[in-house]
Recover the amino acids of this structure.
């Protein structure tokens, strides 16, 4: 264990998140290296009345870890072992692991994986507890759908600290704490030290038999459309085609569940709109599935596909994938997740928003998208809205079975804008806020749960949802994230964090 104080050389490297808008001036950063070290650190902070936050891998979209109030940051990054635990018959993943570390360890040793996020450096600490979605979700569900147990260091009413292991076993008295970590989000109940994974229904006693197997090979395709060749009518067609394909092709277990598609709708200043697609190459007729999908998406758009030569958010240009590449699964995963240097840009500033979709876009949604993406208010090639493939196996799980409640959408929306200079904050925040407010103007500026939209993703947190100015829907932020699961999360909060030690702008509140 190492305690890094303000004087230490490495302090500046350990006091800001991936998004440089979020930094703190804590008295200390404590780097823990074993599960046993966590409870004493928490106990000391509680005893001394210090405000404490937990850093998994620092990818939080808001300031929940690094902010001006924090006194002690517990940094989990060096607690990153991945191993089979025979006592649990599950694979243990320590809470400081990042996704690529997990994928490599699970796959190279045992030929299995977890269906988590795309970006290599995302930490499991925040990611798993918030749901965890990625390229294999349509086939295998969310990462939390494979969560068997979690270990959390919690603080009792009297300030006493203890380690609790909670499993999904029906007779586990701590089962609710497990449930709260299947979509409740990080920074809410205690310090997560370990997760254990075993797929529901798995009967084997070998790590290779208890977790999902990814395809041996995938087809990775990256194609683009030039903004110079897209009219408003063509754009409308493209967006409606994408939505329509997902509405029609998202049955759990279907052949189409083996296809994961992103439509990267960049601001016009990027020059291109991207279509990034991954298909299980082992599927019979995989090439046809990919070709049929690209034909369906581009049908009537009136602009030819071309190589993706522009960088798009966290994806770099991929001209080599214009002809789909047949790649071993792990190589493709590593390539997609690491190929953009922007992920390590030390001046990166960013803002994000999200929404779930249960059907195709009404015309006025698409008109707003076109208007915002061609607006001359900004000139930023990273300003983008992604349509992200979802549904299929994700929707095979009932909404109350896990804390993750968005189980009827076919695709989801992710807005992202990146910039460098703090002087440009207003310009970018204004553009993104206006885009979102215009799109959802009929529902108070946010994607309320209804027959078309279905709230927001807690792993893409957005504190604007708390604000009466930006959320005029009468649907509070917690309902957008958790829908009808919120009250149960509050009960877990009351039982396991009754002093509200673990809190941030959007943490689960104690019940009244
Ligand atoms: C570039 C990028 C790509 C992304 N791609 C995806 C994706 O493909 N799919 C997807 O679903 N999401 C994605 N995300 C979102 C990601 O899942 C969340 O940002 C997630 O919360 C990150 O977890 P972290 O541990 O890295 O972040 P942190 O900033 O360290 O933590 C996030 C929250 O979790 C809490 N937390 C972290 N560790 C612990 C712990 N051990 N105990 C208790 N609380 C903890 C923190 O206190 C904070 O409140 C992406 C984010 C980025 C920046």
């Amino acid at each position: 264990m190492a305690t890094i104080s303000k004087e230490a050389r490495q302090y500046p490297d350990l006091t800001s998140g991936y998004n440089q808008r979020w930094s703190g001036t804590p008295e200390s950063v404590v780097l823990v290296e074993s599960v046993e070290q966590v409870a004493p650190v928490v106990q000391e902070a509680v005893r001394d009345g210090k405000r404490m936050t937990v850093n998994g891998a620092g990818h939080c979209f808001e300031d929940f870890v690094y902010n001006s109030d924090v006194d002690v940051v517990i940094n989990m990054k060096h607690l990153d072992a991945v191993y089979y635990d025979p006592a649990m018959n599950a694979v243990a993943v320590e809470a400081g692991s990042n996704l690529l570390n997990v994928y490599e360890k699970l796959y190279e040793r045992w030929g299995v994986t977890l269906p988590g996020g795309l970006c290599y450096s995302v930490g499991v600490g925040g990611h798993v507890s918030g749901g965890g979605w990625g390229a294999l979700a349509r086939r295998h569900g969310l990462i939390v759908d494979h969560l068997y147990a979690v270990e959390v260091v919690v603080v009792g009413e009297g300030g006493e600290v203890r380690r609790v292991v909670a499993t999904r076993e029906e007779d586990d008295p701590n089962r609710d704490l497990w449930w709260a970590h299947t979509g409740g989000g990080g920074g809410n109940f205690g310090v997560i030290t370990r997760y254990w994974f075993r797929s529901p229904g798995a009967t084997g006693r070998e790590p290779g038999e208890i977790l999902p197997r990814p395809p041996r090979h995938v087809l990775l395709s990256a194609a683009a459309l030039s903004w110079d060749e897209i009219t408003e009518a063509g754009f409308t067609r493209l967006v409606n085609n994408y939505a329509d394909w997902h509405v029609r092709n998202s049955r759990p277990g279907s052949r189409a569940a083996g296809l994961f598609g992103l439509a990267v709708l960049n601001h016009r200043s990027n020059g291109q709109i991207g279509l990034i697609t991954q298909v299980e190459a082992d599927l019979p007729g995989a090439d046809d599935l990919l070709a049929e999908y690209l034909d369906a998406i581009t049908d009537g758009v009136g602009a030819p596909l071309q190589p993706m030569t522009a960088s798009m958010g966290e994806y770099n240009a991929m001209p080599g994938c214009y002809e789909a590449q047949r790649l071993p699964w792990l190589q493709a995963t590593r390539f997609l997740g690491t190929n953009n240097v922007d992920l390590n840009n030390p001046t990166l500033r960013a803002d994000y928003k999200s929404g779930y979709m249960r059907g195709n876009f009404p015309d006025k949604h698409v008109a707003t998208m076109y208007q915002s993406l061609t607006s001359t208010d900004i000139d930023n090639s990273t300003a983008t809205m992604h349509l992200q493939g979802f549904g299929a196996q994700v929707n095979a799980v009932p909404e109350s079975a896990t804390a993750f409640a968005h189980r009827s959408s076919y695709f989801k929306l992710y807005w992202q804008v990146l910039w460098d200079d703090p002087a440009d904050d207003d310009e970018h925040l204004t553009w993104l806020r206006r885009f979102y407010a215009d799109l959802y103007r009929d529902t108070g500026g946010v994607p309320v749960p209804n027959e078309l939209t279905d709230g927001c993703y807690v792993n893409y947190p957005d504190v604007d949802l708390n604000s009466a100015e930006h959320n005029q829907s009468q649907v509070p932020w917690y309902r957008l994230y958790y829908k009808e699961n919120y009250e149960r999360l509050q009960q877990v909060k009351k039982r396991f964090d009754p002093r509200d030690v673990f809190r941030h702008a959007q943490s689960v509140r104690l019940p009244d």
In short: The chain has a mean pLDDT of 97. The longest strand covers residues 217-226. The CA atoms of residues 165 and 400 lie 21 Å apart.
